């Protein structure tokens, strides 16, 4: 009996499920010590992963590499099947359409209302007005903001503004959602609500990566936790917790 065939097909199935893959990735900026050193990170479709670590440990650099805002110095990085070292410049916008991103500081258009902030993301990818009129109210309902579609950002609380940012990140139905300290400007109650929304989005099939300093959230949500320290992955645990740093 040839057992090796079976083994081989198993490995292929695992590989095809991988949506993010970093092998021996280093990233050095022109000044200072390398921001990331020899990183190996493999994330499957549908995973929820927390990225934690002290300020300066390389978390945002990792997010920027995944978006192909930055290029790696050495190693190999693949996202959704794209080799990000070889991807053509003209293909980058199409690649990014499949990634939603939210930041600590919301980054909404201040002079546009909630509806327009979300519709904007759909206009960029040339969705028809008919689709926009269907998709925007639907995603606003998902984030609990159906009644606020006419409000301007300054009329909203921080938690509500982050929900708008989340709706904007999700309206184009990305395969991956990246969140770089999404609760950094929010109080504990709003932080929890945003995290619960991220969990719900993940349960609907989106792969979610969340950079956070919120140890209560990380410890109680029981997700995979990747810990960076000075540009190195020092732990990667299923159902992990927040590791204390001194
Ligand atoms: P984190 O998000 O974990 O706080 P960053 O990825 O922002 O960390 O930064 C990692 C390291 O890279 C830090 O030492 C930081 O000073 C450095 N760094 C970040 N961005 C730049 C840049 N544009 N030029 C030079 N060094 C940078
Ligand atoms: Mg950062």
Short summary of the structure?
The protein is of the alpha/beta class and 246 residues long.
Provide tags for this entry:
single chain, 246 residues, alpha/beta, four-stranded antiparallel beta sheet, 10 strands, disordered N terminus, binds adenosine-5'-diphosphate, binds magnesium ion
Describe the 3D structure.
- The protein is α/β, with parallel strands linked by helices.
- Helices cover 36% and strands 24% of the residues.
- The protein contains eight helices and ten strands.
- The protein has helices at residues 3-16, 59-66, 92-96, 114-124, 129-142, 158-170, 188-203, 215-221; strands at 18-27, 36-44, 48-52, 74-79, 82-83, 99-103, 176-180, 207-211, 224-229, 232-237.
- Strands 6-7-8-3-9-10 form a six-stranded mixed sheet, sandwiched between helices.
- Helix 5 (129-142) crosses helix 6 (158-170) and helix 6 (158-170) packs parallel to helix 7 (188-203).
- It is globular.
- Mean pLDDT is 93; it is low at 3-12.
- Adenosine-5'-diphosphate (ADP) binds next to helix 2.
């Amino acid at each position: 009996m040839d057992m090796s065939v079976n083994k081989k097909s198993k490995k292929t199935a695992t590989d095809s499920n991988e949506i993010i893959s970093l092998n021996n990735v280093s990233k050095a900026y022109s000044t200072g010590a390398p921001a990331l050193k020899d990183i190996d990170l493999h994330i499957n479709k549908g995973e929820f992963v927390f990225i934690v670590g002290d300020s300066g440990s390389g978390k945002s650099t990792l997010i920027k590499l995944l978006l192909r805002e930055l290029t790696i110095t050495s190693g190999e990085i693949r996202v959704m099947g794209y080799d990000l070292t070889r991807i053509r410049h003209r293909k980058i916008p199409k690649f990014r359409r499949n990634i939603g991103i939210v930041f600590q500081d919301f980054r909404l258009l201040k002079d546009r209302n909630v509806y327009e902030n979300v519709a904007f993301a759909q206009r960029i990818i040339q969705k028809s007005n008919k689709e926009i009129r269907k998709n925007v109210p639907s995603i606003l309902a998902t984030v609990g903001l159906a009644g606020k579609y006419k409000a301007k950002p300054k009329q909203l609380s921080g938690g509500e503004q982050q929900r708008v940012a989340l709706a904007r990140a999700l309206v184009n139905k990305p395969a991956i959602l990246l969140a770089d300290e999404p609760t950094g400007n929010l109080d504990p109650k709003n932080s929890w609500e945003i995290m619960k929304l991220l969990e719900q989005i993940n349960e609907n099939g989106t792969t979610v990566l969340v950079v956070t300093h919120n140890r209560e959230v990380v410890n109680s949500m029981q997700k995979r936790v990747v810990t960076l320290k000075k540009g190195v992955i020092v732990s990667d645990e299923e159902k992990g917790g927040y590791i204390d740093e001194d």
